[in-house]
Amino acid sequence: MGYVYMLLAAASWALIGPVSRVALAAGLAPVEVAFWRALFGGLLFAAHTWALGLPRPARRGLSGAVLFGVVGVALFYLSYQYAVAYGGAALASVLLYTAPAWVVVGSRVFLGEPVRAYGTVLVVLTLLGVVLLAWPQGGWRVSAAGVGWGLVAGLAYALYYIYGKLQFERFHPVALLAVALPVGAVVLWPWVDFAAKSAPVWGALVVLSAVSTYLAYLFYALGLRRLEATRASLVATLEPVLASLLAFVWWGERFTPLGYLGAALVVLAVAGTALEPWFSRRRSARS
Q: TM segments (predicted)?
C-alpha cells in the first residue's frame, strides 16, 4: 500500500500547476497562492486533529514541526518561486528533482538506510528523465541565482522524506502537519502582496488546499510510514509526468520528443522501485 499512497500523493501534487493557473491568471502572485495553500491546508489538518482527538505533539515533536514549517514549507515554497524567477521553470524543475539524490545521502546519514547500487541507478535514471522532460525549446537559461535557489528548493523538498521518516513513527503525522503548515503560512505572510479574488479564484485556492495540500500530505505521510525514504522520493517523481499529462488533456500541451523519452525514464525508474522487493526475493530464492 505504500506505493499506492505515494502515487496518490504524486497525483494530488500534479494538480498544483494546472489549478494554480486559474489563480495566477487572475493576478495572484505565486507566493500568495503558496500562502493560502499552507494556511487552508493547516486549518484542515487542525480540524482533522480535533476530530481524532489527537494530543498536541510533545516538545521535541513540536519543535521539529515548527522547523519543518519554516524550512519544508516556507523556505521550500519561496526558494522554488525564486528559482523559477531567476532561472526559468525548466531549470527550477530539474533542480527541484535533485531531491532523490539528496534523500539517498540523507537517508544514509540520518536514517541508516543502505545505499544500494540498484537504487543509485534508479536515482540517476530519474534525474536524467526529469532533465529530458523539462528540456526547454529555446535552451537553458542558467544563472548563479537560479541554480542556487533551485538547489535550496531541492534540499528543502528532500527534507520532507528525511523529516517524515524521523518523526512520523514517533508522533501522529496529522498533528505534526497541523503545526507545520500554519507556521509556514506565518513565515510566508510578510512576502505576500494580497490581490482581489473572484469566486473562481477562491475555488481554485480551496481545491489546491484540500487536494494538493491536505490530501497530498496525508497520502505522503501514509506512504512514508510504509516505505524507505529513497523509494518514496523516487515514486513521487511521477508528479511532473502526471502534471504534463494533465496539461495535455486540459490545454493540448504536448511533450517534446525528448520529453517523451524523459517521461518514459521516470516511469521506468518508478516501476523499478516498485519491483525491487520482487527482484530481491527472486535473488534470495536462487541463492
A: 35-54, 61-78, 84-105, 117-136, 142-162, 174-192, 198-220, 232-252, 258-279
| Distance, CA of 2 to CA of 235 (rounded, Å) | 10
- Amino acid sitting at position 155: L
pLDDT digits (tens, 9 = 90+) for 127-171: 888 888 777 766 666 678 888 998 899 899 999 889 888 888 888
Neighbours of 229 (CB within 10 A): 25
* Prediction pTM value: 0.85
Question: Which cell numbers in the block locate residue 196?
Answer: 482581489
Residues 171-211 have pLDDT tens digits of 899 999 999 999 999 999 999 999 999 999 999 999 999 99
Q: Using alpha carbons only, give the angle 73, 270, 69 rounded to the nearest 5 degrees.
A: 10
- 8 Å CB contact between 263 and 241: yes
The answer to whether 1 touches 143, Cβ cutoff 8 Å, is: no
- Integer Cα distance of 132 and 127 in angstroms: 9
8 A C-beta contact, residue 104 and residue 273: no
Q: Which of 269, 265, 168, 275 is nearest to 222 (CA)?
A: 168
Residue 117: all three cell numbers together: 547500487
Q: 65-76, pLDDT tens digit by residue?
A: 999 999 999 999
> Phi and psi for 32 in degrees, rounded to 5?
-65, -40
Task: Return d(Cα 224, Cα 164) in angstroms, integer.
Answer: 7
**CA 21, CA 16: separation in Å to the nearest integer?**
9
Of 196, 166, 160, whose CA–CA distance to 180 is shortest? 160
Q: CA nearest 270: which of 134, 149, 130? A: 130
Q: How far is CA 265 from the centre of its chain?
A: 19
Residues of the chain with pLDDT > 90, as a percent, come to: 36
Burial 42-69 (b: 16+ CB within 10 A, else e): bbbbbebbeeeeeeebeeebeebbbebb
Distance CA 90, CA 133 (A): 9
